[in-house]
TrEMBL record, chains A, B:
Source organism (scientific name): Thalictrum thalictroides (Rue-anemone)
NCBIfam families: proS_fam_I
Keywords of the record: Aminoacyl-tRNA synthetase, ATP-binding, Ligase, Nucleotide-binding
Class in the EC hierarchy, top level: ligase
GO biological process: prolyl-tRNA aminoacylation
Pfam families xrefs: HGTP_anticodon, ProRS-C_1, tRNA-synt_2b
Lineage top rank: taxon: Eukaryota
SMART domains named among the record's database cross-references: ProRS-C_1
Protein's name in the database: proline--tRNA ligase
Record-annotated Aminoacyl-transfer RNA synthetases class-II family profile domain positions: 96-344
Keyword ATP-binding: yes
Alphabetized SUPFAM superfamilies for the sequence: C-terminal domain of ProRS (SSF64586), Class II aaRS ABD-related (SSF52954), Class II aaRS and biotin synthetases (SSF55681)
Length: 546, 546
């Protein structure tokens, strides 16, 4: 990078949505047309301002009313991109590999932030902000860190119209600058533990990008802590991976497997990396969050020392841990189905959508009045509710649209419901009539507790379904041949492993699978390495991954 | 920037805190030593983990127990930097002009975010995220925008180890990339209004920086909206400046003056800029928030069109509006005094600090028990409370420390208070014994309502004090001579203005003052321009500014 070369093709202005378009010809016709059971006269009138502002839904649905989603079973990748486009989750930015996070997906990210922020603060961390521009020399201070990150850097060389003396790196992660500051703040053991977190954007020059899963710039939180003992650092790294596990299970309904990374897969600069690994709908693994015990690697590189209780100078022991917008991709790929997105109630920007139904205009007033009152009841109960009272679309169209957007519960209110003081509740996760319950009372307390129970049920049900799927796709293997069969069937292979890094890399080369982790949950009994036949302490999980 | 020059000094690795240190010799000795009225035996024991984690206070206070703050009246700038250092609000980053926002200041920013996020959503906006890397060509599309921003850009020229074909700008503001995306999302009048906001970092290559007020990178929210008519855009621009006004008055207790910018001072690319201007403690003006009516400037540059109700293609009408971490600097400079920071209760990370006081160890148990119970009562009432039970420092030291950190209320509990079931409440904004009330009952409901009332009183009192200060420092002027006198006295000058831009620039050159705004609140009656003697429609406010 020292010599100045003529421009190469690292930046290319790709026409917008070309990536999406490439996949359009493969789509089946699952069109968003009204279902037979309901209709109303479509009219072209202005939609309510409310509808537009909540999620800015109204572009693709209007310009592409024939919008279709490739069935998941047919082409998982095309399905994923279709869902992202039709549910208006993201768009590509003008710079290759960058992503615009649209309001509906950003609201999921905000729900993730809200939950984690509480947990981070409960566990003693404070939020703060470190600058994103890092002197290039910082990155070079920790040997394995520079090796891991230097191919991925975006570098600022011009500032205020002038060439800079020292090139600046746009933060790919912040361990280096964090340690530079920690060195100034930490003096004695009384300053420890120092426990902070920041919610920021990071930039990594990824060559093969995919919305949410791998983008040139993404959003994340990165926690950074410094401790007086290696035991405390280890405890912290484990505590934070546990926060992630609970988040994944309880909020996202994503049944991750938690474990330790192999040395090959450990973070550049860490002593030990803990990870949560999620199984996507195509059975590929997604590394969904990591927590690193950094040991003294960065504190030695940056001279981050403290005086201990006996008056001796020591380097601090550190951790860092992160979850990113990648998790939003993980949620899409875990729960979605042929109809589109399916969101866990606890993270859904809209938990309940109300679709009023009428044929004659004299029915309209009463139906809308009831719908507004139901909306109010649910909103007061703290439920995230949306009334779709637009007159541009038929109820059937709306059913399909909100199903595609993954809203957990739909409430239908028609003229007959109004006269009986009841409504119809449909579950997103149980397709067709099976998921539909008629005659639920509109009475405040009945309705509130019914809907809350249903949301809880859906939350649990999504987790159970994902767990069953995961468990039926993990195969216990005792030889390399068995491993190869499992991987070739698209499954995860779990087997005893004590072989070398060379052999680990050989598996990757020959099967495409990597060690996702040595899971915390280990089977009892003596084990024999599937590769070498020698004794093994642990089983590892191998899988292809994103 | 086309030709490649040898490196210049735009990046210089300045030793940390050198800027602060430069000012240290000017300090008076306002040392943080125990006050005479209270003592306890200082012990060197480990502080409670809680104390350390909430705000990571314990560095400077330990390494520099003699920490002093320059009196505000003596040197406002040195005072400001001292407060930022001693209250642990920020530090410089390793790259010139960048800033690390430390937990205590970041918590103020979070309180600002919490309030504004609710208001933005109530007014129909959704949060989302646009990438920070913008093709250089985008910046050039809107003529006055490129003129305004090109001297301040940080430019990425290398990505993934290769020279880029097109240079990328690190977002200085996002109008260009927003319009690039809006163009794809907006098709018909039904897609309007489109109203979004993002909370992000922005980078501007400022040459003269000052913590919070002007830094190379800062945090802000930027709202962006598109409308079908100029009237709607104007209404939105006014609505958002009004949100800022209410925030400033009601949350920050900063009595801003709201008005319209002169053409010279209008945002690069806007048709009209509305501003809130705050008077700092040194009577300089701080532009604390702006809302721009962008007209069709960006929509024409980026071809952002919609089909109106009559089927005609039209360019959209737009706004953008922003408040940044600069506001934190504004709060410091509005309310602080010689003792340090003074925070408005509604934005204070800690609203109440409890300092337990004991002499004999047999008193300790009861005092601490009472303190913990008071902490619990206040916490349950939703008050942000901190119990400073560390044994390293004397109560007197703690009094000074928490005063310096600007905590609105201090509660003292000693052995005699415990026996009488009462406590002592001290107000940060009323110094000495005048602000101290003895014998407040510890009984839950009495205590809760007393503290809440006091917090409200302090909030109002800070605003009143700042308003009185502001009003006593704005002078009505009717001639250029009067204006010059007012400015030379460090005041704001308000006078009728209808002169030319040349004359406006002449005022700046000769007095250092600029038109801060044409305030919305205008005096009645005919007006004669202070410069030209010709009729004037409005008065303008002139002041020196940050």
């Amino acid at each position: 990078m020292g010599s100045l070369k003529l421009p190469t093709s690292a930046f290319a202005s790709i026409p917008i949505r070309s990536f999406f378009h490439r996949h359009q010809h493969r789509r089946l016709c699952l069109s968003l047309k009204p279902s037979a059971s309901t209709q109303s006269t479509p009219k072209t009138s202005t939609p309510s301002p409310k509808e537009k502002n909540v999620i800015n839904t109204n572009n693709d649905q209007k310009s592409k009313p024939e919008g279709t989603i490739t069935p998941r079973s047919q082409d998982f990748n095309a399905w994923y991109l279709d869902v992202i486009r039709h549910a208006e989750l993201a768009d590509y930015g003008p710079v290759r590999g960058t992503m615009v996070i649209r309001p509906y997906a950003y609201a999921i990210w905000e729900a993730i932030q809200d939950y984690l922020n509480v947990k981070f603060k409960e566990t003693g961390h404070s939020n703060m902000y470190f600058p994103q521009l890092i002197p290039y020399s910082f990155i070079e201070k920790e040997a394995s860190h520079v090796e891991g990150f230097s191919p991925e850097l975006a570098v600022v060389t011009i500032g205020g119209g002038k060439e800079l003396e020292e090139k600046l790196v746009v933060r790919p992660t912040s361990e280096t600058i964090v340690n530079h500051m920690f060195t100034q703040w930490i003096d004695s053991y009384r300053d420890l533990p120092l426990m902070v977190n920041q919610w920021v954007n990071v930039t990594r020059w990824e060559m093969r990008t995919k919305p949410f899963l791998r983008t040139l710039e993404f959003l994340w939180q990165e926690g950074h802590t410094a401790h007086a003992t290696p035991e405390e650092a280890e405890k912290e790294a484990l505590q934070m991976i546990d926060v992630y596990v609970k988040f994944a299970y309880e909020q996202a309904a994503v049944p991750v497997i938690v474990g330790r990374k192999s040395k090959v897969e450990t973070f550049a600069g860490a002593t030990r990396t803990y990870t949560i690994e999620a199984m996507m709908g195509d059975r590929k693994a997604l590394q969904a969050g990591t927590s690193h015990n950094l040991g003294q690697n960065f504190s030695i590189a940056f001279g981050t020392k403290f005086t201990d209780e006996s008056g001796q100078k020591q380097h601090v022991w550190q951790t860092s841990w992160a979850i990113s917008t990648r998790f939003v991709g993980g949620i899409i790929m875990t729960h979605g189905d042929d109809a589109g997105l399916m969101l866990p109630p606890k993270l859904a920007p809209i938990q309940v959508v109300i679709v009023p139904i009428w044929k004659k205009s004299e029915e309209k007033v009463n139906v809308l009045e009831a719908a507004v009152s139901v909306e109010k009841v649910l909103k007061t109960s703290g439920i995230k509710v949306k009334l779709d009272d637009s007159e541009q679309r038929t109820p059937g169209w709306k059913f399909n649209f909100w199903e595609m957007k993954g809203v957990p519960i739909r409430i239908e209110i028609g003229p007959r419901d109004v006269s009986s003081g009841t409504l119809v509740v449909s579950r997103r996760d149980v397709p067709g009539k099976q998921g539909k319950v008629f005659g639920i009372s509109m009475e405040r307390s009945t309705l509130e507790s019914y809907v809350k129970d249903k949301l809880d049920e859906i939350q649990s049900s999504l987790l159970e379904k994902a767990e069953a799927f995961r468990d039926s796709n993990i195969v216990d293997v005792n030889s390399y041949d068995e491993l190869k069969v499992a991987i070739s069937q698209g499954k995860w292979a779990r087997g005893p492993w004590s072989a070398s890094e060379t052999e680990e890399l050989k598996v990757k080369e020959e099967t495409g699978a990597t060690i996702r982790c040595f899971p915390f949950e280990q089977p009892q009994g003596t084990k024999t390495c599937l590769m070498t036949g020698k004794p093994a302490d642990e089983v590892a999980i191998f899988a292809k991954s994103y």
